[in-house]
């Protein structure tokens, strides 16, 4: 497996093949030629070090590893789409998006009730609430990052107060 960053065009080709169910369909979706998409899939497989599809004549099917890899690729592509949306919103001077993660019970009950209790003017135009299991490693990482940010802000405030 190559240790460098994977070319985004290869990931887009892979996601398109998974979505369309064929190389030809993916080529149409992407506005690329079929040989280009075929080559991109081959390059991606060489890069990751395993087959993403089994081939049976003109038909292809994702391998179990391909299915697992697809979930990661979709998450990345959604993240890139989110970055584009945020860049556009920042350029337009829009209020920031409020992104929250909570365990399912809180995401379904407490969080919506708490948001509804806030004044409309205080809420950004977009609020994203994601329900995540308490065992979710991504959630744990985010909590650790937030804890460090809060600790840094708290230290700055207490230091600033001591200087007065």
Query: Tally the helices: what do you get?
Result: 6
Oligomer kind: single chain
Largest pleated sheet: 2 strands, antiparallel
Mean pLDDT over all positions: 84
Terminal Cα span: 56 Å
| Uncertain regions spanning at least 5 consecutive residues | none
Range of strand content: 5-15%
Please report the total strand number as a whole number. Answer: 4
Radius of gyration: 22 Å
What's the quick description here?
With 164 residues, the chain is mainly alpha-helical. The chain has helices spanning 8-20, 23-30, 34-48, 64-91, 104-117, 137-163, and strands at residues 53-56, 59-62, 98-102, 127-131.
Explain the overall architecture:
By secondary structure, this protein is mainly alpha-helical. The chain folds into three domains: 8-75, Arc Repressor Mutant, subunit A, CATH 1.10.10.10; 97-132, no CATH class; 133-164. It is built from six helices and four strands. The chain has helices at residues 8-20, 23-30, 34-48, 64-91, 104-117, 137-163; strands at residues 53-56, 59-62, 98-102, 127-131. The strands form two sheets. It has a two-stranded antiparallel sheet. A two-stranded parallel sheet has the order 3-4. Helix 1 packs across helix 3 and helix 2 crosses helix 3. The longest helix is centred in the middle third of the chain and has 28 residues, at 64-91.
């Amino acid at each position: 497996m190559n240790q460098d960053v994977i070319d985004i065009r290869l990931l887009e080709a892979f996601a398109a093949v998974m979505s369309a169910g064929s190389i030809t369909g993916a080529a149409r979706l992407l506005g690329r030629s079929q040989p280009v998409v075929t080559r991109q899939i081959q390059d991606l497989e060489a890069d990751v070090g395993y087959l993403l599809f089994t081939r049976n004549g003109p038909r292809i099917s994702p391998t179990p590893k391909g299915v697992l890899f697809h979930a990661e690729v979709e998450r990345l592509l959604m993240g890139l789409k989110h970055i584009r949306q945020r860049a556009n919103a920042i350029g337009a001077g829009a209020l920031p998006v409020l992104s929250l993660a909570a365990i399912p019970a809180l995401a379904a009950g407490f969080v919506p009730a708490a948001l509804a209790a806030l004044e409309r003017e205080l809420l950004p135009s977009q609020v994203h609430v994601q329900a995540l299991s308490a065992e979710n490693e991504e959630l744990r990482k985010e909590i650790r990052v937030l804890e460090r940010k809060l600790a840094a802000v708290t230290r700055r405030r207490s230091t600033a107060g001591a200087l007065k």
